[in-house]
Design a protein that fits this description.
Blueprint: H1 9-24, H2 30-48, H3 50-56, H4 65-73, H5 83-91, H6 93-112, E1 117-122, H7 128-136, E2 142-148, H8 151-160, E3 168-172, E4 184-189, H9 198-211, E5 212-223, H10 231-238, H11 247-256, E6 264-268, E7 274-280
Parallel strand pairs: 1-2, 1-4, 2-3, 4-5
Antiparallel strand pairs: 5-7, 6-7
Helix pairs in contact: 1-10, 2-3
């Protein structure tokens, strides 16, 4: 086997697969895995790969705005020996699904609000999706309210969207503490609800029901319980745990939140890793 200074995708794949196998079978503990990453791969690896970013969580939580934008932009390390790690990362189902999620959002937005309107974007992250929407459609009459708990994510998104800030209102709040008298034509929340248990899911969806206009649409993203080939990779290498749900579970939670079954549907992106609960008022 090549040494750790001669990475290629084949070696990275072997390391990842062997590690997942050893951890799931109990041959390697999480503490031993941490020692391997810290001392065998090293601090330079952690600082210069997406995998290292996910492992170290520099912003204090999994799935932060930077790693999401790394996924959106398919960032690759400029250090040759670490490039295969980023290339391998981007080939996995979950990152592909996250990129598809951005495209799904844009498609649904123009389908639901072809002439523009008001959007509530919850846990808005890096703002790359809004950048693409506004820059490629300068006459599109969309007014967006972004609610984001991480102030660094807001500053990052403001820089990306500096030419369109007159169309975007950023609110630095935990969504459970957010209140508003506004009503929106569409509410989008991807990359948030799969961090919640069912009780919190229902509580927040009920609030969304109060904030959506009659005839408006709410779309909630959630990782698919029935299909996510990247799940063990996310959990073991990134300590990134999500509450995966099935189509049926999402429909059930929407009904428990007060929505009529006839106004509920579930969509999916091409990877079938991300599901999207659609509910109309």
């Amino acid at each position: 086997m090549k040494n750790f200074n001669e990475f290629d995708i084949e070696l990275v794949e072997k390391i990842v697969e062997n590690t997942i196998n050893n951890v799931t079978k109990g041959y390697v503990t999480k503490e031993e895995l941490k020692k391997f990453i810290d001392f065998q791969l090293g601090e330079d690896f952690i600082k210069n790969t997406i995998q290292g970013h996910g492992y170290s969580k520099p912003h204090g939580y999994a799935g932060d705005y930077e790693i999401i934008d790394f996924i959106y932009t398919k960032k690759i390390s400029k250090i040759p020996k670490y490039k295969p790690w980023d290339e391998y990362f981007h080939l996995q189902s979950a990152p592909r699904a996250v990129r598809n999620r951005k495209e799904y959002f844009k498609e649904q937005l123009f389908k639901i609000l072809p002439n523009g309107g008001s959007l509530l974007n919850v846990a808005s992250g890096p703002g790359r999706d809004l950048f693409e929407i506004y820059n490629k459609n300068p006459t599109y009459n969309l007014i967006t309210t972004c609610v984001e708990m991480d102030k660094n994510a807001i500053e990052y998104a403001k820089k990306i969207n500096k030419n369109n800030l007159f169309k975007i209102d950023f609110v630095n709040k935990n969504i459970f503490r957010f209140t508003t008298d506004k009503r929106f034509d569409m509410i989008w929340a991807a990359g948030l609800f799969d961090y919640f248990d069912d009780k919190a899911f229902i509580l927040l969806l009920k609030r969304f029901r109060e904030w959506i206009n009659e005839g408006g649409e709410i779309i909630i993203g959630n990782f698919n319980e029935d299909y996510n080939p990247s799940r063990l990779y996310m959990e073991i290498f990134g300590d990134w745990y999500l509450n995966h749900r099935t189509d049926e579970k999402l429909v059930s939670l929407a009904k428990l939140s007060g929505f009529e079954e006839s106004k509920i549907m579930v969509g999916r992106e091409p990877e079938n890793v991300n599901l999207f609960l659609h509910v109309r008022k």
